[in-house]
Amino acid sequence: MNIDKNTPWQEMTHGGTIYDSGNAREFKTGDWRSIKPVYISEKCKQCGLCFPVCPDDAIPVGKDQLRKDFNYDYCKGCGVCAKVCPFGAIEMKEEEK
Amino acid sequence: MSIRERLSGNEATAYAMKQINPDVVAAFPITPSTEIPQYFSSYVDNGMVDTEFVAVESEHSAMSACIGAEAAGARAMTATSANGLEYMWEMVQIASSSRLPIVMALVDRAISGPLNIHCDHTDAMSVRDSGWVMLFSETNQEAYDNMIMAHRIAENKDVMLPLMVCQDGFITSHAIENIELLEDDKVKEFVGTYKPEHYLLNKNEPIAVGPMDLQPYLTEHKRQQHEAMENARRVITEVANDFEKMTGRKYDFFEGYHLEDAEYVIVCMNSTAGTVKNVVDNLRANGVKAGLLKVRVFRPFPGELIAKALEGKKAVAVLDRVPLLNGTGGPLYEDVVSSMFIENVHVPTVNYSYGIGGRDVTEEQIHKVYQDLQSMQDMKDTFRFLGLREK
Amino acid sequence: MYNVKEVVANKPSRFTAGHRMCAGCGAPAVARMILRAVDENDHVVVSNATGCMEVSTCIYPYTAWTDSYIHTAFESASAAESGAEAAYKSLKKQGKLPEDQNTKFIVFGGDGGTYDIGIQSLSGAMERGHDMTYVCYDNGAYMNTGIQRSSATPRFADTTTSPAGSVIPGKMQPRKDLTEIMVAHHLPYVAQTAAFANFKDLYEKAEKAINTKGGKFLNVLAPCPRGWGYATEDLMLLNKLAVDTCWWPLYEVENGVYHITYKPAKKLPVEEFLKLQKRFRHLFKPGNEWMIEELQKEVDLRWNELLAKEEMTNKQ
């Protein structure tokens, strides 16, 4: 789907139906953030508490079952992950302007 | 060879639905349309159709379930009346805006209150601008024929709009009349199978139906609906032509009865047209050039055609089977006179509210209308009541 | 055995990033984990009631759902889904769908769309036995329209239509127990859960619900930082305290048999849960101690009832 606010009516999908499931990924929510989580991999024990709590799927987990660094395209900076980390492996820092 | 039968309007409708064999029917009982889901359930429970019948807990859910089913890729149908239609009103809008060709049988009845279970058109008129194609039926035969044509119109890819077939509660729905039915295989072939382009149950193309549609988009989506309604004009004609080839029965946007050379014309819809036809015959026998214009396709409104058909007449009466509560005129009247204005047709035209809550529509009343028209000099008192007790 | 790392690493996210729910909202992680409980090869038709989740996950031309999705109106999610499910049955029966297609039907609604405006269509769909799982994410008020009280709003909570005033101190009625109402529908599976610890309870109940035939209901607590007035990062703490105080017991009812899936080793006083939330701030003012006592009584009563039901139904 290649539709935006300049698309003429003749070219829009009928009834507002969206044919491209999961395309919200194209919409980046990272700019909502005012504080950002910083991942300190040396402290991380890969305990698995942080990634399921992320509302924004911004903590990627590989097939190796290990979490990777944050995906800042989507992280809204809520801090839930930092709070659940028992090892201090996530620190919340002011976003640089 | 067609099948000669004697059926009520409700049974004829249910019979058409059986022959159409939709994938899903979701309905909730309400007088006078209750018999439709009753008949249909017996077809389901006796294995005569492939349909899943969803005995919903309300009309709101009936339309919601039809929306879910149709969006899922199924052919979905329902039937209702009056308050049932009002209860599903919200979903009636969503069905059309989601471009789902649901077909509904509407058995017209007065909307409460006070409570009345008999015929008028307040229910249909309350959804007249909801983006549904609306066909009206004078007789059980027309209710049946319109239903057989419904899916071909609604599901046409240039249309993709829901459609309702209206008939008069009790007067048509419960009166048993002669009818010519089509053979099952002919209906099956005529209606065809539904092959939607995008649907929820296509696992290879998951889609999202009914999004949040904000300022940059809603205007354009509504424009598309308008286009679909315009396209329906062509498709309605094409389908009627095919239907005529199969049955010999001709359907148009409206039916003219002694209309061409008429001087005085009544415009109305549904069963009242039968009474008007009798009166026209009577008047013609006495040398009065009376005529009738019976609207079949109410949405999309054939304004241009109607205005042109009324051009040069001496006087016109538009009969609205609704109370006049808006200080200007009934819906059919407003549509007719504004169409005449646009087409530059100037004929004195007045409006009658009649037949409210099942009030009998007598030949005397219709006679009175033609008398009024004959003595009418200009468009005074455009706002009239028929069959009203007054002191 | 449930292993959160295995589940997240191996099962795809069916609720993507790029949605516009509030930062720290409790609902997306719940919805995502529930969808992860679906077999990878299965397809889902999601029906979503109007609410926060709907208005922020499917904004034209974007959708955060990788499965088929339908939103109709506020009160109609269950009815629309029952139509879709009936369509599936009908088309399957007629051979109009691929034989190997396996579609699951899952509805998401907030407490407004579930406890209140949608309860009729929910009750109807469940009674009719459509093969679907209804998930209520209960955040205890109409959050989407700006925190108005719902029948799920707890007693004494301050909302915009039950403000804690000088005469009437918040919502005066106890919350409706929807989970028990659904149990009374005699469904094959009803459960109450929360995003607790490593999501084991939530995931296992979702998996059970989705793979049980018939009408199933999950009631999931979904803390709302805005509506409850707690620090956004405390999401999981709120979930934990709700469970450890027995404010929100975790249990399931399978064919009428109760099973409490978590019994706190030490049941915490309810004020531990209340004190983190602005909506209960007025309960902590001098002279209002009775309100906390009342809530504690209510929690104790319900918890003891639940223990009794578990005992009774397991004896039979």
Number of helices of chain C: 12
Please count the beta strands of chain C (DSSP E, at least 2 residues each).
8
Radius of gyration of chain C over alpha carbons? 19 Å
* Main interface: chain pair and counts: B-C, 44 and 50 residues
Shape of chain C: globular
CATH class of chain C: Alpha Beta
Q: Architecture of chain C, according to CATH? A: 3-Layer(aba) Sandwich
> Helicity level of chain A, as a percent range?
under 10%
How many discrete domains of chain C?
1
CATH topology of one domain in chain A: Alpha-Beta Plaits
Strand percentage of chain C: 5-15%
Structural class of chain A: little secondary structure
Uncertain runs of chain A? none
| Count of discrete alpha- or pi-helical segments spanning 4 or more residues of chain A | 1
Order of SSEs of chain C, N→C?
A: HHEHEHEHHEHEHEHHEEHH
Going across the biggest sheet of chain A, name each strand in turn. Answer: 1-2
The fourth-level CATH homologous superfamily of chain C is Thiamin diphosphate (ThDP)-binding fold, Pyr/PP domains
> How large, in whole angstroms, is the Cα Rg of chain A?
17 Å
Structural class of chain C: alpha/beta
Kindly report how far apart the N and C termini of chain C lie.
29 Å
